[in-house]
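idk why but the lab printer keeps eating my pages so im just putting this in chat instead. protein + phenylalanine:
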Amino acid sequence: MSGPNTDYDPVEVTPLKSEEVEAARDAALAAIAGATDLEALKAVRIDHTGDRSPLALANREIGALPPQARKEAGQRIGQARGAVNQALAARQALLEREHEERMLVEETVDVTLPTDRVPAGARHPITTGSEMIADIFVAMGWEVAEGPVIEAEWLNFDALNLGPDHPARTMQDTFWTDPTENHVVLRTHTSPVQARTMLTREPPIYVVCPGRVFRTDEYDATHSPVFHQVEGLVVDEGITMAHLKGTLDHFASSMFGEGITTRFRPSYFPFTEPSAEVDLTCFVCRGAGRTDDGSSCRTCRGEGWIEWGGCGVVNPRVLTACGVDSERYSGFAFGMGIDRTLMFRHGIDDLRAFFEGDIRFTTAFGSDIS
Ligand code: PHE
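predcted complex ->
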């Protein structure tokens, strides 16, 4: 920087000469106009407005001028710098806009193109349905219990008051494993989990047991050799059939909505006494037996009720066989088909849909979270 210059002669202060300032300004404007992308403009900005640029150097010289000359020089340089800064800002805006427009074109994604990604699929409706059912009971403080699908004959039958010659054994067409002398079956119902629970826990017992079961049934729209049941078991002091009815009514309305309840019809199971078949209010006609146009409801065949499962007060002989003091404790149990329950709930008319693995079915019903 030059020292104080009292004998002011503009010729001596070269950077401040008006031609010099104009030349620096014009050079800057030309460079700005010539910058074709943001990188280039950045370099131009440094060269023409940075600390070492001619205009910045000239600006610094102003202080060295005699006071009477400062104003005019200041104006001249200020105007030149203003023009350069304006041109820079305008060019910057233009180049940014161009850049964005180019990106939009270059990075365009055609969302209508077919994807080559493998569909993620969904959890199986039986899995989500079983969890939904278990949740209803867990919310009442019950626990979830599980047992093996390959089961000892004694637990599947004998412990449940179904001795070897009991006629009710033929109600459940059984898959036996080889060799039959081992007395091992594919469980025909989830009731052996009752026996297992009582043998390993002290009352009070409140458990729900969803699981897979097997019977030598035909494979058709309403039968399958493998299907799913959910078992409920309560053993506590003072348990009556009224607790069973209240529990199943709550299960029904939680699963199918307000106003859907149950009715009991007398029945027989060796492991419960008394025993009942449980019917559910028909969720289509809501118990009326006929639809809005007056015709008989097809879902319940005009009954207003549909069969749902079996239940009863635990037979004291079962309590005793499983080591529970039947003088002190009583209990109730029930068993429902999970597949059947979900068929009702979702309006599925063919049981086989659960077992054929069509992803359109699993995605639609397995993602149900309501
Ligand atoms: N286990 C019976 C069946 O599979 C259902 C049931 C369970 C009945 C519990 C009464 C009590 O048919």
